[in-house]
Structure formats: structure tokens, C-alpha cells
Amino acid sequence: MNFVKSLLLLAVILGVSACSGGGTNSSSVERNTSTSSENDDGNTDNVPEPEPPFSALLDGNIYFPVSDQVTWYYSDGDELTLQTEVMVRDNSMVSMQHTSAAMPRQEYFLSDGNVIQYGGLFASLSGLPGLEGVALEGSVEFHNLRRVYDPLNDRGQGFTFSALDADLVAPDGEVLLVGDYYWRSVVGEKSLISTGQMGSVPAVELQINIDVAITYMGITLQRYPLVVTSMWLSPGLGIVARSMGETMVTLDRAEGIQAPVVFVFDQGDGLVQSPQQLLIDGNPVTDMEPQVAVAYGTRETDWLSVEFDATGSWRASIIGAELPRGIHGAVVQVSRGESRVDVPVSVLVN
User: Fold this and answer.
1) Start-to-end Cα distance in the chain
2) Burial class (CB in 10 A: 0-12, 13-18, 19+), 184
3) Is residue 21's pLDDT more than 90?
4) Across the strands, what pairs with 234?
5) I need a labelling partner for 28 at 20 to 30 A (CA). Which of 84, 147, 218, 269 fits?
6) Domain span at residue 229?
7) CA–CA gap between residue 210 and residue 213 (Å, rounded)
8) What is the dihedral of CA 214, 219, 225, 226, to 10 degrees?
9) Do 165 and 147 lie in a common domain?
């Protein structure tokens, strides 16, 4: 029976493989476009100093910003949105929804604290091997979530040494069968990825493989490497590039996320980097009214200073001890009353 079930699951994921081809806030803020620091009476003396920013640990995963107000647009025409609170095997998941036929219709993620986990996918199954002429769609739901990335420890799930269980579920919720699969997720290189609107941004490569297993009486007879994909995640932006087999797509633009402040330097050169201007909607913040906080999303903290300086605007600079090699991320939270805009800061240390 397991042999038959595994063959059906094999057909499902073969179809997915064939089809695959291998907290932000966009609220507007008031800005004073003048660089003058004059008072209302024209006197430049006794201008009040802005409150110094405080720092905190980011509430959530900086590599996986979750918001239903953001749309990501990719070079192949795919438009990616997120839907929260989607139930998958009693887990409240985030459904990553694609419009491109080259991708699964939905993928299920859980961003719980610092760890990003994967719970399965949803796809149309019509015309798959063994299901020709059958109008069928459904989801493949893992019995146990698989770790995609833990940024604090810089690791994925690694390899699974024995077959794992997954349900094939019809749209009405009926479990059609249980099949077997193997999972692999490892961390690749950290590099600059060239995007459209956002420019070149630091990103970490996450390599993911899903193998379907043909088993008999608990013994794996054969494994099929069906899903071979890499995702490049950038702090504050999410997925900025993705490969499926030999196909590579990159982020063209994102609506609802601010462009990041980016620093790139060799280890030991962080403290000599020039400050960079904080931009919101492409414009500098030139008044001292907002409250500014720094939230760190990676292991190292207390390395970023945001100050209103002599340029008449808020600028970010690297401070403290020299950062180790790798990617470091933070979010500058600019608040005015109940309105808040998050500006990512991404650092690549070579």
C-alpha cells in the first residue's frame, strides 16, 4: 500500500517540479524638504536636539517580512503576496501565493520568532503522470515542519536520514493519501544580488531539495530528486532571487517595502565607512520630529547609529566593535504618532 501511495505522491510532486521549472509598513510620513534647521522665527539658535534612538531586538524574522500590504514583483512576471492565518495540519501558516505558472500556486511557511519553516505547497494536479484526464488539485502537507533558515545560528535543517510523511489533501480537506519524502536545506553563499528597484543587496542563499521516496515495508527502494531550488533572502526584503532548476528570477520591485540602506566592506573596515542617508519613499528625512528606534534581526547588536547630523537629515553609520564576516541586518523604525515606517539596513562583511 505504501508503494502505491508513494507512486501517487511521486506523480504529484513530479507535476509540481514540472510546473516549477526547475514587518513592513508603507504608511506615508510628513517630510520637510528643506535642509534648514531654522526655528519659526528664523533664529537658528537653540534648536532642540532630537531624542537619541533606542535599540531593541526585532519582533519577527528579518529575512521573512510578513505583511498582507506588500506585493513582490519578479523578473519572470510572478507577483508574490502573503496570506496569514492559513491552517495547515493544525498550524497557522503564512501562504506565499504566486501568479506565475512556473511556481507552485501556494507555499506554506511559518515564521515563528527567529526560525523560518516550510510546511508544504498547493498545486494543480491535472494532467500529471498517472492522473491524465483527472481534474484534481490539492496540497502536499508535511507532517512535521522543515526548517528553512535560522538566521541567529546561520543554519538550515540539514539532511533527513529517513523518509518523512506528507499528506496529499483535496481542496475540501479530505486526506487522499500519505506518502514519503526526504528533505534537505543548507546555507549557501552570502553575496550581493542585483535587483531592479532596490539595487544590489546582501542576500544569503538557501538550497532546498525535496526527494520523493518509493518505500516498501518501511524500506526506501528508490529516491527521486524532484524539487531543486535555491532562495536568496535579504534582510528586510525577503526573497530577492530564486532558482528552479536552471531558471533564475530576481526581484524587480516591491510595493510596500522601503529600499534598504546597504553597507558592503571587508572585515575590519566597518568603522571607517561613511554614513548613509536614511530615505523614505526615496526622499531624505529632514526634520527632527520622528521617534527613531533600531531593531536588530541578526545575532550581532549595537552596531548601528542613526543620528540627525549637520547635513540636516537622519543618517546611519556603523559603530562599536568590528562586525564579523557575514550578513547583518536591522530595521530603523521611524514613527510619528501611530504611523510607523520601517527602513531595512543590510550589511555584507566580506
Assistant:
1) 52
2) middle
3) no
4) 238
5) 84
6) 2-24+61-255
7) 10
8) 40
9) yes
Provide the 3-class DSSP secondary structure of residue 287: coil
Q: Taking 90 as the threshold, does the pLDDT of residue 245 lie above it?
A: no
Final residue in a domain of this structure, among 206, 237, 255: 255
**Is 157 in the same domain as 222?**
yes
214 neighbors 226 (Cβ within 8 angstroms): no
21-34: b (≥16 Cβ within 10 Å) or e:
bbbbbbeebebeee
As a whole-number percent, the residues of the chain with pLDDT over 70 amount to: 78
Q: What is the dihedral of CA 288, 290, 293, 294, to 10 degrees?
A: -70
Q: For residue 99, count CB atoms less than 10 angstroms from its CB and return exposed for 0-12, middle for 13-18, buried for 19 or more.
A: middle
Considering the domain architecture, whether residues 160 and 16 belong to the same structural domain is answered as yes
137, three cell numbers? 488539485
Q: Would you place residue 151 in the very low, low, confident or very high pLDDT band (cuts 50, 70, 90)?
A: confident
In which band, very low, low, confident or very high, does the pLDDT at 139 lie, cut at 50, 70 and 90? confident
- Does residue 216 sit in the same domain as residue 299? no
Domain end among 255, 275, 297: 255
CB-based contacts of 153, cutoff 8 Å, min separation 6 = 299
What is the tens place of the pLDDT at every residue in 31-61? 222 333 333 333 434 444 444 444 444 557 8
Does a structural domain hold residue 49? no
Segment 63-74, tens digit of pLDDT: 998 888 899 999
The total domain count for the chain is 2
Q: How far apart are CA 206 and CA 241, in angstroms?
A: 11
Asked if residue 218 and residue 72 are part of one domain, the reply reads yes
CATH code of the domain containing 288: 2.60.40.10
Predicted pLDDT at 56: 46
